[in-house]
Amino acid sequence: MVYLTLQKSQKVFAASRHLHKVAAKALEKSTPEETVTGSFASFIHNVRPDHLSDLVRHRSKRMILDSIGVGLVGSMTHVFDIALRYCQEIYSSSSSSPVSSVYGRRGLKLSPPLAAFVNGVAVHSMDFDDTWHPATHPSGAILPALLAASQMVPAASRPKGLDFLLAFNVGIEVQGRLMRFSSEAHNIPKRFHPPSVVGTMGSAAATAKLLSLNATQCGHALAIAASLAGAPMANAATLAKPLHIGNATRLGLEAALLAARGMEANLLILDDTPGCAGFNAFYDDYQPSPLTLSTNSHEFLLEKQDIAFKSFPAHLGMHWVVEAALSARNLLIDHSGSLSPSAIHTIILRVPLSKYINRPFPESEHEARHSFQFNACTALLDGKMSICSFSPDSLCRQELSQLLSKVMVEHPKDNVANFDKMYAEVTLILQNGDILTGRCDSFYGHWRKPLSRESLLRKFQTNASRVLPKDNIDNLVKTVDNLETLPDCSLLASCL
Fold first, then answer.
1. Residue 282 and residue 164: Cα distance in Å, rounded?
2. What pLDDT score was predicted for residue 89?
3. CA triplet 224, 38, 181: central angle to 5 degrees?
């Protein structure tokens, strides 16, 4: 038995030695900076605040403010309570220092990884967080990690607000670059939830930058994060989906902390190495390229591709169908002089084909947030959408059930499941045979029709006011607006 075990160990060692030789040969052909992974690590380590343009600073601060507001209102949800109780009860005897703030719980502190986890859950608890193209939720996977990490650094050496803003943009940039290595990633996902993959990598990159890891440690942080990434789309529209963001931000933070303590991993993790599955394990058409940084300037992806902010808490695709439904509703009122659901014979939705957001009769708030049918019919019935639209009382209305029973869904070939190209049409066929159609190509809040400063502030203030007094809300707005001048970035987390 001992002999057989020794034989197995020798085989494992030989196989491991072979893999190390393959990796070594690949590295021999180029310096670390010339590999894709090495270029990313070098970028994370070397990028400076003066590489941030005024536009990138402006857009990223809007993202930070919106994400904080979404996290604060998310701290009132059932799924957040479950996650918080879990961390408090299961890890109550943890030796980790409880130094990091929690959304909506003034005075409560958790260890940095646990604070990042519960705050990430809060951000995605209602699917109210921002969305980018290619499709992912970029801010929620990064901001909680940075807030938690900022409070764990000794007071005498804490990064400044400008360092925090740079680290945030590093995390956004890494996510965007990775998703652009695959055309598959541009469309509404089918297999795995993107922020659970690229968000984990972005969190690791952002935390590594904030904590000033060296280039090699940055590479190891990315490689470690890749081993902690992934979540299946089958858990969309369930209580488990917010865990995807919570885990992404926590595990990315932990990957950076492990790298800082000497943990090593494959420094070719982002390269397309023949015979070795690295980050290409997540995308069938993965074609990476180096992330270069010039001495004087760098064009961040956020400069070219703005973000989408949601006006109500639901999957981004719902925002097209709601605006189309509201347009059809107005046509019906103009046509008939009033809104009478009984006057509607059939409702036709022309939307992209995506199974997990095609839910004819949702039975929970999380299913409702991922239902074209529910959102279209609720908008027709109420003339608006809000947090209250997904309450149990709203879901159980008789008149809503009657409208849902009249819905037919069509998937035009030209309507692709892509947040940059999709559209929505809502056609009402009336009992008298008249036909009314509302259409939306770009909803208000989409990157082609960005929210105004006033609309973004109104959303933030409405969300934050559920848990914070007005003075605290005003202070948060000022702190984010003046983030570059903040002498200690942990002051932002202390405002929560």
1. 29
2. 86
3. 80
What pLDDT sits at residue 16?
Answer: 38
Confidence category of residue 296, pLDDT binned at 50, 70, 90: confident
The CA-atom distances, in angstroms, between 245 and each of 58, 155, 299, 436, 494 are 24, 28, 27, 40, 22
Q: What value does the mean pLDDT of the chain take?
A: 92
Residues 6+ apart with CB under 8 A from 233: 189, 190, 191, 192, 193, 356
**What span, in angstroms and rounded, lies between the C-alpha atoms of 227 and 197?**
10
What would the mean pLDDT of 358-370 be, rounded to a whole number? 96
Any idea which residue has 């015979």 for tokens? 275
- Give burial (CB, 10 Å; 0-12/13-18/19+) of 114: buried
Residue 144 CA to residue 30 CA, distance in Å, equals 36
CA 330 to chain centre: 33
Phi, psi angle pair for 78, to nearest 5° = -65, -40
pLDDT of residue 90: 77
Residue pLDDT, tens place only, 423-458: 999 999 999 999 999 999 999 999 999 999 999 999
Q: Which amino acid is at 430?
A: L
Name the residue type at position 422: M
